[in-house]
Amino acid sequence: MKALLFSVVLLVAVLSCSGQRVADITCGVDGSLGSDFQEWEGEFFPNISYIKYEGPASHNPLAYKYYNAEELIFGKKMKDWLRFSVAFWHTFRGDGGDPFGSPTKRWPWDDGSNSLTVAVRRMRANFEFLKKLGVEKWCFHDRDIAPEGSTLEESNANLDYIVSVAKKLQEGTNIRPLWGTAQLFKHPRYMHGAATSPDVRVYAYAAAQVKKAIEVTKLLGGENYVFWGGREGYQTLLNTDLKKELDHMATFLRSAAEYKKKIGFEGTLLLEPKPQEPTKHQYDWDAATTMGFLKNYGLSDDYKLNLECNHATLSGHSCHHELETARIYGMLGSVDANTGDAQTGWDTDQFLTDVSEATLIMLSVIKNGGLAPGGFNFDAKLRRESVDVEDLFIAHISGMDTIARGLRNAAKLLEEGRLTKLVEDRYSSFNSPLGKTIEEGKVGFEELEKISLEAEEPPITSGKQELAEMIFYSYV
Ligand code: XUL
Ligand code: CO
Fold it and tell me: Could you tell me which residue ranges the Xylose isomerase-like TIM barrel domain spans (predicted)?
């Protein structure tokens, strides 16, 4: 009888580690992985070797032409300027499905199910992918890496298990998450919002999910934690208490900052602005709105921004504008590197291939002294029609080379100083005694009226926009 009971317990333990569900919460948390860990034999990308730098003359699609990780630019390695990261959700969960069509991608190791066995394979594939690309960072949502269970407890157990797999895989490597986050937008419970839901039970559930996601990000040595409020917004103000929702969002973020300190997580907390999609109006509309919100609620010291280029264009700004707006206030934390399509009005999450945009982005990043502990996360996906495994590599290589090219251009542009001088010259009148007293706030409207009454009409001077453009494009 005893032996039978033991076998049943063992069977349950094995099933829960290697099968479709984890009922046993102890599975994996102590670092002991189930037998399924090695269940997929051999490499995930057997036909792709380690990607190397071959220089601009190379025609090899599986080589870097501009990204040379160890090369120094302004005394810092390219890899330390750029701190590239792979987004798990697009690379390993993106299936090519869209509102009009079924999935088009089925990677060899993926059966499209939400089983733990496949979740382990995806995580192992992620680490092989990172190593082959020579990228040391990755980003995840809790629910992309581990399946949601039928209870919160089961979801947490699934997450613990997959995180223990990731922890094992990162041993002996420098690979760590750039950031982790909680997916608070897919499940129907969040359809009215998470922190801004009118239902207090949903607020509480979201808090529990974020608590756990911060804990696992810390456990994996993640350097940041991101909040993108997918459902934090409204569809109509007619049914919405705007003040209550913003107050609740601030309370939620304050609790997250308190919990982070309580558990000694040293990563930076980041908010990711986006103006709309999926809600008609997202509360974190753009960098300026988000910084205003943080300041209003006294949260500016606890948060920085994670800026996404495609989100910038959706809000009617350039990515450069968003980066500069955050940078000048010391709030530039990290970048979701992607781009939209000029003729498409939604978040297409494409890999950035526009070298002039990359050069503008890198001007901000260099002026910021880099992004660390942030980085460039490729929140970008293959087109629906790109279905080969090698396309995953080509897309990342192309995105990395584009940003590396931007870094080289921007460094040269700043080093030679022609554009810097043009800008300085435009403001040079503020170097006069009058300009200095104005900038120091030592002169008021009455004195300025007196000075202007006595002075000649200010001269009409050129803004030199065409010259600025000529200079800029000579570096691209
Ligand atoms: C959605 C988006 C998210 C966040 C993380 O547009 O950008 O993937 O980056 O939740
Ligand atoms: Co993003």
Answer: 187-321
